[in-house]
Design a protein that fits this description.
Elements: H1 8-13, H2 17-25, H3 28-39, H4 42-71, H5 78-100, H6 106-118, H7 120-126, H8 131-157
Helix pairs in contact: 3-4, 3-8, 4-5, 4-6, 4-8, 5-6, 6-8
Amino acid sequence: MGHAAIGASELDNQIPEKARWLGYAGLLPQLIAVVLVVRGGEWGWIALACSFAYASLIFSFLGGVWWGQALSDPAAPLWAFIAAILPSLLALALFIPWTLGWDWPGPSLLWLGVFIGLSPLVDRKLGMGGPAWVRLRWQLSLGLGGLTMVLAILALQQR
């Protein structure tokens, strides 16, 4: 029976409940950061810095997943390994403006949010997971990427 014949709730049941809830719980740090930034003050700035660190860690983690996926496939193309190292390198590059005293974190958060939001495209190209997992990855990536972009906008408004 093809996936098209399976209802959405049946596909959701293929994902362990704890994986789904822990995935959604991974959005909490960015949600808390949004609240703290909106409230303003010293905690708002700390929240912006922490939200950049958190999003960078998650993005780098995704690269590690892609690296493992590429290593497990003896026929993996070179682009898969390149894609796997890019998240860590991009996150580091987006951190450099802070170290140089340039405009940060708004532009860096914005780019990081875009990259995270588009990251399931790499999963898709690598052929990772079934429909339920792909849908969860899109939800989590768009959630984290979107919240990170909201934080970017808030940071840019504070300038």
